[in-house]
Write a structure and sequence with these properties.
Length: 158
């Protein structure tokens, strides 16, 4: 009887360790590269170098855009810029990332929007070139487009 209890206990311990290992296993999904740069043109609102930072967790993804070349024309409160970032997808339909997430920014501060939420599919290859960023700030729409492909290359999603 004692041998059965030890065997049952060992089996339970092994099962518990296996489940714990799965819980702490790293996510297989990853986007590469994690960051990319491009040059943006925002019409009357200026333009210049900008950086996109990407994350992925399964089919959920986020993109954050920052640019010291594109600055806040007036003080902007946190979470007040409605942003829609459309990314060209060389493997299918364009992907859209959206949200109203931004830090508070003083006049002249670099623009940061995101993380903006979107959905991706394994194999997506996303580039801002051919897409756009639309920001609605105090009822004024600002549209920025890339003047060329992002570097070092498109975001590739697992």
């Amino acid at each position: 009887m004692r041998g059965k209890r030890i065997g049952s206990g060992a089996a339970m311990l092994a099962g518990t360790l296996a489940v714990t290992g799965l819980a702490f296993a790293p996510s297989a999904a990853a986007v590469t590269p994690a960051t990319a740069t491009f040059t943006a043109s925002c019409g009357l609102f200026g333009g210049g170098a900008a950086t996109l930072t990407a994350t992925q967790s399964g089919s959920s993804a986020t993109l954050t855009l920052t640019s010291s070349a594109i600055t806040a024309p007036i003080p902007i409160s946190a979470n007040s810029i409605n942003s829609t970032l459309t990314m060209a997808n060389s493997t299918g339909a364009a992907r859209v990332f959206s949200g109203a997430v931004n830090p508070a920014m003083a006049t002249g501060a670099p623009i940061t929007v995101g993380p903006l939420d979107g959905t991706v599919t394994s194999g997506d290859s996303l580039d801002i070139n051919g897409g756009s960023l639309k920001m609605v700030i105090f009822g004024i729409t600002v549209t920025c487009k890339a003047t060329g492909p992002q570097a070092p290359g498109p975001f590739l999603y697992d």
